[in-house]
Amino acid sequence: MCSAFFRPRGLPWIWRALLGLFVLLSLSACELSTRTATIEVRVQADGQTRTVRVPVGSTVREVLERVGLTPQPLDRSEPPFYQVVKEGELVQLKRVREEFITEEVILPFEQQLVRSESLPLGSTLLIQEGKNGRQEITYRVLYEDGIETARSVVKRVTLEEAQPQILLVGAQSSSPPVAIPGRLVYLSSGNAWIMEGTTALRRPLVTTGDLDGRVFVLSPRGDYLLFTRKSTRPPAEEINTLWAVSTDPQKATPFPIRAANVVHFADWLNNTTVLYSTVEPRQAAPGWQANNDLYRVTIYTNRAGTPKRILEPNSGGVYGWWGSSYAISILGQVAYSRPGEIGLVDIEKGRLTPLLQILPYQTYSEWAWVPPIAWGMDGKTLFAVVHVPFGAPVPDEASPLFDLRALGLTNGTHVNLVESSGMFANPVASPLRTQGREKAYQLAYLQAIFPQQSQQSRYRLYVMDRDGSERRLLFPPPDQPGLEPQTVVWSPQPLSAEAGYVIAVVYSGNLWFVESESGRAYPITGDGLISRIDWR
Fold first, then answer.
1. Hey, where are the domains in the chain?
2. How far apart are CA 209 and CA 229, in angstroms?
3. What confidence tens digit (pLDDT) does each residue in 386-431 have?
4. Is the pTM of this model over 0.85?
5. How many CB atoms lie within 10 A of CB 120?
6. What is the dihedral of CA 427, 428, 433, 438, to 10 degrees?
7. Architecture of domain 324-487
8. Backbone phi, then psi, for 12, in 5-degree steps?
9. CATH 3.10.20 matches 38-91
10. Beta pairing, strands 224-230 & 147-160
11. Can you tell me the mean pLDDT for 483-490?
12. So what's the architecture of 98-160 in CATH?
């Protein structure tokens, strides 16, 4: 072991110089001896164990380099690469490699039980077959010296979604049967059902479980149902398809209309002709770009003819990207409605005739408001919801006020029937009835509970004479929650002299009847699954 030398004082300078030189030589010798000192270390790697001598103070990485081993990026050692080794220590180099493995696995389908009063108690109906899905899973697998030590998922890709098996389970109806005229159809859990003769007699029309409810309307005689189904293709390629089905149980096989992307409108011009409008799917909100077109197609026995274009695709005016709607009168007249305009359609010449300019409503969102319109039963009046200014400081386009107005087609008069009805008043005229020597009808409409927040408000059902007189609240009563916005349906004939005509509504997912004369209201279903109705 090296020791320090102390310089004595008082010696001549020559002696002090000699002593200094001696000290320097001693320290260099000490450092040299320390550097050349070695220790013995064992190295275990690649199935071999070897012994090597390395300088004192060497790290594990330097030991491995001494024996010619180069660690790869994933390799690890025990002790770690940065640690200084000691005499007799064992250094183990673990060779680590990664591998990515892709496997395809099955996604088992689920079973969904849906309670429905449309079936007898205790019975079941399979409305959608279950189908397993497929998923591709990519794993990162780590191996140490050839042995798997870790496995983790780095990516999942669903190749095919699982389709649940859906079973309708019959439930006891909570309401006594009611005799009804005509045919009443309703949409429940993506399936179409029909009542005929009595509310107790219910049978399925379409049980594919994929009806989207955008179109759900009976032909004037009630012998066909027009409806839309979700497309099997991605929504960015195709939104839905248009179909029809006979209400005759012997012919009830759905058939396509050869039309797709029908979002806003499809209806019956007469018993054998359908009109419809289309959009183009888009990935951006709202999911489409409207064509604002109009097509006509003839329906034969369980098949559709070739569609014929009536209106060419066009911009549709203000907010035309959202789309136009149309209404057909009992006489075959066609009216159109756009965010900024209401008018008539000449289906023979393919021409539009504006009747009324509408103040467009600025929603500040990814949708546009289209004025609801409805024909009077005499074909001489068009009822419409119009947007009216609120006044300063509210900009006109953002006004929260909407009125229900009657447009006289013979004399050109415009009459306000209801102020502040709400944007979704959705007027519907009753069938014609005789009053003295003239034919008359009533008008049902929805009144917003909070007119200045009618976009979010619930509504109550009102009925009045066609001139706006005799206005009455029918349903629901003021102490009950209101209706969701919808288009209600009149019965084709009176149920009785006391009940008069009945208005069918959807309330809390159930079908309700509201008698127009007595105001009596009662539920027809209780399973809470209904979303659309029609009655002819």
1. 1-36, 38-91, 98-160, 210-314, 324-487
2. 9
3. 999 999 899 999 999 999 999 999 888 899 999 999 999 999 999 9
4. no
5. 11
6. 40
7. 6 Propeller (2.120)
8. -60, 155
9. yes
10. unpaired
11. 97
12. Single Sheet (2.20)
